[in-house]
Specification:
- The complex is a heterodimer.
- Chain A is of the alpha+beta class.
- Chain A has 9 helices and 21 strands.
- By secondary structure, chain B is mainly α.
- In chain B, about 75% of the residues lie in helices and about 0% in strands.
- Chain B has 24 helices and 2 strands.
- Chain B has a two-stranded antiparallel sheet with strand order 1-2.
- At the A-B interface, helix 2 of A face helix 20 and helix 21 of B.
Chain lengths: ~375, ~550
Amino acid sequence: MISISHLMKEFTVTDGKVAALNDLNIEVDPGEFFVIVGASGSGKTTLLRSVAGLENPDSGSIKVADRTVFSNDPPVWVAAQDRGFGMVFQSYAVWPHLTVYDNVALPLKEGAQKIPGEQVRARVQQALEMVQLEEQIDRPSTLLSGGQQQRVALARAIAVNPSVLLMDEPLSNLDARLREEVRGKIRELAKHLDATVLYVTHDQIEAMAVANKIALMSFGKLLQYGSPIDLYTKPNCPEVAEFFGTVNWLPGELKSAESNIIKTEIGEFSVPDIDAQEKEVWIGFRPEHMGISTDSYNAQTNHIQADLRNSTFLGDQYIFEALAGTAQLDGKSRVAPALQADKLHIAIEPSDIMIFPANDENTSFINTAMTNS
Amino acid sequence: MVLAALPMFVIVVLVGVLISISFQSGIIGTSDAKFTLSNYVDLFSDPIIGEALYNTVIFSVTATIVSMGVGLPVAWLTERTTMRAKSAVYVIMTLGLLIPGIYTAMGWTFLAHARIGFLNRWATRFFSLSEGPINIATPVGMGFVQGLSLAALAFILTAQMFRAMNPSLEEAAKIHGLGFFGTMRRVTLPLAMPAILAAVIYIVVIGIATFDVPAIIGLANRVYMISTYVFEKANPGDEEFSQHGITAALGVIMIAVALLLTWWYSTVLRQGDKYQVVTGKGYRPNLIDIGHWGKAAWTFIIVYIIAAKVIPLILIVYAAFVPYLAPPSAKMFSLMSIDNLMENMDWDLVFRGLKNTIILVLVVPAATLVVAFSVSWLIVRSRSRARYVLEFGAFLPHALPEVILAVAAILMALFVLKDFVPLYGTVTLIAIVYVITRISFATRAINSALLQIHKELEEAAHVSGLSEVRTSWRILVPLLRPTLMSVWIWSAILVYRELTVAVFLVGHENITLPAVIWSYWQSGATNLAAGVTLIMTLVLTPLVLLFWWFGRKSVMSD
């Protein structure tokens, strides 16, 4: 549906140039809810705006449903108003001088489609019903609450029956409770409309909650894209792993070329099949994968003995900090972290362990991540 | 894009023509013209130029001292003390901004002219003096009148600064033991200095280039400023030829000086930003309790209003209805009648002036808005490098003295366009110059309004399928309406009362109403001049009320 290839875009800043998009390749399938996620400055908004036609990339190409909307060779440029997409903006961009009705009707009446006058009212009503705002139809848009304005923006975007729906941090201006509610609705609506959605957010939980597929960007580059589960459980680099949640990192060394055993300062870990090129590796595991053993456990591998530093009860779970050797470990558990013979015993499943080669790039990233936490 | 580039193009051509003619002598604009430096040599060897330069300096300095002397304290009182009825000060000062300098100049001529001035006539009678003790037709006297007229501007410029100043800086000084005067001297004034200096430079630039007050008061008495000197060279009377080469040479020098001052002005403004006095946050400063001094403050303001606006207006009305000019007395009041005006006025001329002025008021603000909107949009929204050029281009007319633009326009019409487009002596030529002089102000006002409008409001329209033109029309214009309206009316008022450019460019056919006043005044028919001024005021009043009304509306919509 949307195919982006070799997309490049540089911005000139005070001290030189910054690549907002660095040789980006993405395929979005029809009907997919595709979320682009990344920290601020990762280029995700630039990517979305390039697809919308609000940003002019330097090179590469963007095709939507086999129609090239941008390409530098041969030069093709379709203006934003001729692309026929719907878009929800971070600020909602609800036109303050118009009523709710006029906000939704203006694109229908004066946009590229030029819907005949007698059909406009029905289309506006239909769109407002979908977002449950039909009762506010004749109110001035400035009198609406933030959540309602957000829904006006959504109604305006879907009223034109777009093949592609673009959303730029649509929930970031809502309060936390409303955010969860609205993201569920957006997901439902997208399924109902069978639209292809390109959705930008900096919030990894929001991304997980709505996406069929997630692409993680960093400094203009695409790190990884795939299903939420893939990105969470099989990250292709430490940066992806860290982005989706806390990771406990340990430096280790492959015991032998044939075995799947990694030796660390706090014990040996058996891991799933790996194709490590180098001996030096980093292993990582998430707090919720640290199983508390209630009885004394004397397994040789995948077992950590640690000193419990502190433990906090949060209602649905405990979070705790433990020290094993020199390694500081963060844990989450549904059972209370209990001590056995003055030590906390922790077990980790081989399939829950992530392994990355200890090359310079990974090592420096992990060291920075560990000092920051 | 074309709309935005057009005025820049005209400005560049005008300046180019000015520079090129300043180096020509002989029959300018033909192949017989010689390229020489003689215009510059003649200019500097003219004995009057030295005098004019000296007069201009004295005049500008006096005008600045008087206007800041009134405007700055009133601004401080209004923004930082418990003085009462502050909104009334704003109303008075805004209206003051709208009353043209020629009113004050005419009124003060009636009052303090060495020979005919009423004050002098009374003084010579009561104290049996041989000549009047006050002479307004001196650089200091004219500077005083100009200062009265610019005080409203000084107030507006400095009041903004006092409003935006972070009060916690002053509070910190107070807590650490500085008294009221200590805080004032060591904290408030040093912090305000960049803004005050910027206002001073701004007013000095106006003082150097201003034409109307020096012309109304000084020209008949042969007291020249640079601007009136330029006028004399361009319109030397019947016997002599216009010395266009010399005017152009002087124009080039004035442009250089004006650009230098403007550059200094913007540097000073930037330095002011460095202090971070302006916080952008809506601080509620602690007001200084001045108690009974509030009455004194209001007395000061009222005296200013009477001296600068009320007396001149009353005297203009008086002068319009008396058969000859003499100090008010029972006899004079009995002679007052409208017949003098009705019989002696050249009504053809007045109506021609009114007609042309109305055409200009209808056309110029609208054209200014369209052009300024295009320029602003490109400056604020586009990311191309061309926007820097536009920004400078839009700023340029502000730096160029109107006198010089007018001279350049004449030269252009006379020597360059003469065979292609007969513009000389037409209303069109005046309209073009008016649009150019108004662009800086309009662009800056629209720029700041446009910056307030979130870019995504426009982008949402684009993505929804609206073209650029439709987006402007359906989204931007409605959102900018309060600003566009006030810019429109403000331009209309300034065009309506404009005297400088008009005096240079009008002829028999394209005369404007202010130029009619000027021609009567210049020929000594002061009563008729006052009469036309009265007619002009009657038409101006509804425009001013309209401005005020829209001004209030746009404040409310903020």
